[in-house]
Amino acid sequence: MAASPAVFSPRLHEVQRALARALPGGHVPASSAVLETLPPADPPLIERARMLEDAQPMPHAVQAAPAVRFAAFLDGTQRSEVAFYGAAGMPLVLGVVAAVVRRRVEGRATTWRHAVWSRMYAPRAAMTDAEWVALAGLGIDVIDTSHDAPELADAHPFAIRDGALRQAQRDREQLEQRLAQQWCAETGELLYVDGGIRGSDTLARAPQLVGVVKSHRTLYADAAGRAVIFALREGERSSAFVIESRTKVPVLSWYLRLRGSPG
């Protein structure tokens, strides 16, 4: 019997070097991950935005000398785990959400304010009265994930779990917004918000807030505009544009390249 031919399986770095030679205009990512191990994410979208500065996106050099303008930084976190499986495989999810504002005082970061919520997420519509009462008696806040999603009354356990995860995310955002609103009410200094600010009309209008988005599942440019954005050099920004929708306050935005992209 003839031996099976060897299967050629090039290593990642070998492929990257070959691509770098073939496509000199591109670059190798700084890091990579197996896509199947990544958590579910929002679908990638391309949306159009109203240009504010130029007819089409253009690069603009940021020539001002660096200066510290932000007085504080706002960020949040969450952790959700299936704590128990009820009848018919229904997952009960324990979630902890938190948010903090860290303020710069004489060059050092100190906590201005923080908050933590621990909650159990479960679909009331899928539980008996006795089960719900027992859950509520545990001494922890219980959130009904089926309140605005009645379809969870008879849903796949994964759908119930995902509904809990989405609710935990909304709770984290609510907690972040609460701290941001407190900051705006008590100080006029500039606050760096990790993430967008379109989720709250009040925050979107607040002059003290700047939302910094580092992941770009939605891109606000056509093919020609994206070519300009991806080619930005270190210290350049794109033309400013306005993000508008029927349900949210318009916000001004732009793309900024802080560091060079190669490597």
Question: How would you summarize this macromolecular structure in one to three sentences?
Answer:
This protein is α/β, with parallel strands linked by helices and 263 residues long.
Keywords:
263 residues; alpha/beta; six-stranded mixed sheet; three-stranded antiparallel sheet; 14 strands; disordered N terminus
Provide a descriptive summary of the structure in words.
With 263 residues, the protein is α/β, with parallel strands linked by helices. Helix content is 24%, strand content 29%. The strands form four sheets. Strands 7-6-5-4-8-9 form a six-stranded mixed beta sheet. Strand 4 and strand 5 form a beta hairpin. The chain starts with 11 loop residues before the first helix and ends in a 6-residue tail after the last strand.
How is the secondary structure organized here?
Layout: H1 12-22, E1 45-46, E2 50-51, E3 60-61, E4 70-85, E5 91-105, E6 108-122, H2 129-136, E7 141-144, H3 157-186, E8 190-194, H4 201-205, E9 209-212, E10 218-219, H5 223-230, E11 236-237, E12 241-243, E13 251-253, E14 256-257
Parallel strand pairs: 1-10, 4-8, 6-7, 8-9
Antiparallel strand pairs: 2-12, 3-11, 4-5, 5-6, 11-14, 12-13
Mean pLDDT: 84
Number of strands: 14
* Helix/strand order: HEEEEEEHEHEHEEHEEEE
Percent strand equals 25-35%
- Low-confidence regions: 1-9
Distance between the termini: 47 Å
Count of helix runs:
5
Secondary structure class reads: alpha/beta
State the major sheet: 6 strands, mixed
